[in-house]
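Q: Convert this sequence to structure tokens.
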Amino acid sequence: MFEGLFQPVHLLFILVIALVVFGPGKLPELGAGLGKSIREFKKAMSDEGQESKVPLPGEEKPPGADAGAAAGGPKGA
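A:
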């Protein structure tokens, strides 16, 4: 059932190593920083999908994008 790196014994071993390296006082700060960075990453990913579509060079413009410019173009000459 549990295969690979994420077996309970492996996770316990990683936690013990982290406790020894960083100490018990620093681990809560590291966890909070990791949680904050994950939340910011998810927010940035969801905000990116909601931005207005701007055509990249070489892409077609949406229909009707030039309708206003053609009808009310510059006068003169």
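The chain has a mean pLDDT of 76.
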